[in-house]
Amino acid sequence: MKEGLRRAAGKLTAPFVITLVVLFGFYLGGDSFQGFGLAAMDSTRRVLKYVLGVAAFLSLAVLVQRIVQYVIFDGIVASATGSPVPKLLSQMSGLVIFGIAVSACAGIVFEQDLTVLWAASGVAGLVLGMALRELLQDVFAGIALNIDRAIRIGEYIQIHRSGDSKISGQVLEISWRTTRVRDFMGDLVIFPNSKFSAFTITNFSQPEANSFRFVTLTLDARVPLARATRILQAAALEAMTGLAGPDTPVPWVEVKAIRLEGVEYAIFYKAEWRHLGNASPMILQTVLTHLAFAGLETATMLTDGPSVADGAFRQAGGAGPDTAGLTALLRAAALFRGVGDAPLRLLASHAAMRELPAGQVAIQAGEAGTSLYLVLEGLLSADAGRRSVRDPLPATLRPGDLFDPAILRGEAHGSTVRCRTAVLLCEFGPDALQALFGAGAGTMEFGAGAGAMERVARNLVSGSASRSEEDEERVADTLRQMRHLFPAPVGRQGSGIGPVANTG
């Protein structure tokens, strides 16, 4: 607001000073010349009177026009409406003000009869009106568009008429003769105002900036409704968050139809029009990614053979992947990179599935770490608050992400993790991790637990087999802590191969 006032003051200062100087000179050029005995300068006085009089009215017109433009239009009206005043109204106001100034010069300075002037201008206006009929139609259509306020500068609209193709874009300007719209291909489309006002206009920015849309896809009818809703909603929310930001409204999923090939779902989402053009393909792309991770396919991709949903990734009621499928997911996780299949199969066999509703807290910052979680379906958010966390979790946790490794360090959780949608988590508690790191003889090959512990410790510290001295010290510290938390069972202690229990 202060910046606008300073800008307006700068624009008004020059015409205001010029007006005062000219009026003062006009005063001196009148009776003051007679006081100095300059009777011989009557003709000069007359010419000076005309010049100063015209300058006085024109400078006053400039001052008034800038007051109207920068104080009334850009200040009061723009603040009240929340949008800039169309250029056409500013130009019309300037035309009226300077028309009055010219009339005042003719009537007062030059002492002409304005009746004759207006009569002559009326005849000229009639002739010009006949010659410029289409141009005047555009002008008055532009005036009607600005008065009606059906569209505003910056709004997103769609223009169409029966039999014509539709054009969508953003309104850039409404001038005397044309309306300019930038379409979503980045091209500038220019409409004559008379033609533009005859179109059917859909305003996507009113009465509110956000609009609803939906996309559909069909899944196998054997996929449980709750599971399908969880996967599709999480995928749509991830796509819209990446497109429109974290404050985007949460999409929702409904059953649209039941067909022979499966159940057709509709994913509803809401966003500003400038995002809607890219929303549908991004949502479908993200949905395919989430479905692939969950081991599902759209019904249109199914063949006559067995469904993927009936294979390794399906349990009774769609409760999550089986041991083979979960082993494949663990193998892809960064924390278990380099760990052999046998330890991961053992870890997967001790996993537990947890279904959490949207809004529930999965882990609370400050509480002791008791489990390691793998996101299977759904979307979660992590917030460290004002805490200084050594290895902060990503702000958004999606399928395939592991959290929180605090249990491996014997620490408290550094972040609060909350479900943004309904989620399916795979939980690895102390018993599962003990089976991985301190398995007894006969459960897997000898020494595999020790090797898995060292590999996890390295991944936890640096994500790679780093050989720097500082990283090696951190790996050694982490490894000692993990040996204390997950000791080797009796019979393998002190063998020099497995982890050694803390006897202190």
UniProtKB/TrEMBL annotation:
The keyword Cell inner membrane applies. Keywords: Cell inner membrane, Cell membrane, Ion channel, Ion transport, Membrane, Transmembrane, Transmembrane helix, Transport. It is found in: Cell inner membrane; Membrane. It holds the Pfam family MS_channel_2nd. The chain crosses the membrane at residues 12-30, 50-68, 88-110, 116-136. CDD domains: CAP_ED. Residues 335-408 form the Cyclic nucleotide-binding domain. Gene3D superfamilies: 1.10.287.1260, 2.30.30.60, Jelly Rolls. InterPro entries: cNMP-bd_dom (IPR000595), cNMP-bd_dom_sf (IPR018490), LSM_dom_sf (IPR010920), MscS_archaea/bacteria_type (IPR045275), MscS_beta-dom_sf (IPR023408), MscS_channel_2nd (IPR006685), RmlC-like_jellyroll (IPR014710). It is a multi-pass membrane protein. The keyword Transport applies. Homoheptamer. Mechanosensitive channel that participates in the regulation of osmotic pressure changes within the cell, opening in response to stretch forces in the membrane lipid bilayer, without the need for other proteins. Contributes to normal resistance to hypoosmotic shock. Forms an ion channel of 1.0 nanosiemens conductance with a slight preference for anions. Belongs to the MscS (TC 1.A.23) family. This is Small-conductance mechanosensitive channel. It comes from Azospirillum melinis. The lineage of its organism: Bacteria, Pseudomonadati, Pseudomonadota, Alphaproteobacteria, Rhodospirillales.
